[in-house]
Amino acid sequence: MVAGRIVDFMAAAEETLELALYDIRLPDPVGQVVADAFRDAAARGVKIRLAYNDVPENPDDGHFLPALHPPPETNPEILSALPIETRAISGIPDLMHHKYIVADGKSVWTGSANWSVYSWTRQENVLVTIQSPEIAASYRQNFEELWSTGDVEKSGKSEPKRVPVGDATVAAWFTPGHGEELAQHISSKLGGAKRRIRIASPVLTSGPILGTLAELADDRRGLDIGLVVDEPQCDRVFEQWERTQSKWKVPLLEKVIESLPVSGKRSVPWGTGEVRDFMHAKVTVVDDAMQRAPAFLFESAREARDFVAWLDGHIDDVRAVAESTTGTGKLRDIQRFNVGRFVYTRFNYTTGDAAGQNMTGKATWAAAEWIKAENDDVTDYMLEAQLATDKKHSHMNTLHTRGKRVVAEALLPDAVLQEVMRVTSKQVYRARQISNLGGMLSGTAAFAAHPANGIAALFIATGQDAGNVAESHAALAYAELRDNGDYYYSITLPSLIVATHGGGTGLATQRECLELMGCYGTGKALKFAEIVAATVLCGELSLGSAVVADEWVSSHDKFGRNR
Question: In terms of domains, do 61 and 201 share one?
C-alpha cells in the first residue's frame, strides 16, 4: 500500500522530484515497483534529485550509540542504476534523518516511514501529503541546503512559517538548524496545554520536553494526557544514557513513564533478529490562544439559546470573515456562555509572533458585524464584554490561557543553595509553605512573590505593551523538597502576552534589546516567552532566599534603594 501511494504521488510530478531519504532498502518486487516509478518520471522529462544519508566508515567511533540501532544500509550502487541525480549527505556525528518528497515545488509527501520493507509492513508510522506551494517552498529550501553543502550540520536553517492548509495551520521545522528551538517550542506547547495531550513516539529523549512532562506528572491541571512509546527502545535509551553524559535524563524519563498514563508497545527492535516491528510514529498535539470576547444581545433568553446552535452551523463562515482581516491570525474556536438574554463569547485565535490584541479585535469586529447582518435575532453586540479580561488578571485566563502559557523550572541541589544563596533547601521550602498559607489568607490570585518586577523590566526594555503586565504577571508557583535534599521549583505563567515583531518591538532601542537575545522578528515569540519566564523564576528564587537569609533589607540598603 505504501509503495502504491508513493508511486501515485511521483506519477503526478511534471517537472521536478526532490527526495531526502534516510534509509533506502527495498528488495524486489517492491524495489522494482519504486524503481519503475523513477524511470517513468524521468521518461516524462521530470528532473529527479535524491539525497541520502551517508554511512560512516566507523559508526562506533564514540559519536554513535549502536545499541539503539545501526546506521542505515543504503546501497549507492542501486541508486546509480536509476536515471536520477544522487548525493550522499555526511551524517557525522549526526544523521540526515529526513523522509520526504517534493513534487513540482507544489506538494510534499512526508512522515516517519523510512523506505524499507520493515518500515512499510511491520512498523507503525505516520504518512501525510500536503498540497501547498508555501509549505513545499520550505522543504525545497531545506533540500537545497543539503544538496549544496552535502553536510547535515549545515542544514535546517529555514525559518518556520505558519501557513494555512485547509482548516489547519502548518509550520515546517527542520533540524539541526532549529533543533534546540523546536525542542523548546514543543516543550512550551506541552506546558500550555489546556485540555488534552497525546504523544506517540518510539522514544522520548529531549531534555526540555522530558522536563515539562515530568512537571505535568506532578501537576496535571486536569489535563487528559496519553503517551504511547516503544518499550524496548526506551529500555535501550536507558542503557545508553547510563554510559554517557546524558545520565541526568534517566530520572526524568523514569518519572514520566512511572507517573503519566504511558502505554508501552512491545516490539522487536534493531539488533535482536531479522524481523523488526518497532513503533516508529512521532506525533504531538497541544493548544494555545489569544482572545476577543464580544457579547451578543437578544430580546429573550430563548433567542439567545437558539443563537448558540446557529453559531455552530455557521462557524466556517465566521472563521472566513474573521481571518480575511489578518495575514497571520487564525480563529481556533469560539467559546459560548449564556447569561439571561445575552450570549458571552470568547473568540480564540492563534496570532503567530504578534501579541495579537489589535489583530483579534479587528478580526472579531468583522465577524460580529457579519453575524449581526446575517442573524435577525441579534439586536446588538458589544465587541468586548470583559470576558477576555484584557489588561486584567482573571481566573478565566489562569484556566484557559491568554497569550502564551509558559513553565520555567529548576532543580537546585542543597549544596548550591547553601553556597550561593546562604540558605538550605529545607529553609526555603518551609518559607514557601508559610507564604502559600499567607496567600490563601489574603485571597491573592497567585502565590508568587514578585513576578511583575522582572516582567515589567523586560516589557519596557523590549517594546511590549506595558499594560499587559497586569495579566502577564499572574504566576503559579510550585515547590518540592526532594528526598535527597534537592529543591525543585517551578513558575507557570498562564497568560503571558509578548511579541517579537510589530508595535513597540520595532523601536530602535527596544529592537536592539530583542536582537541581543536573538528574539527579534518572526519565529521568535516562544523563545522570548521562555526568557521572560526564566527571568521570573530567577527573581522568585532570589527574593525567596533573601527573605530567608535575612538579606532582603540589607541588600536594599547596600544598593541604595532604601535611601
Answer: no
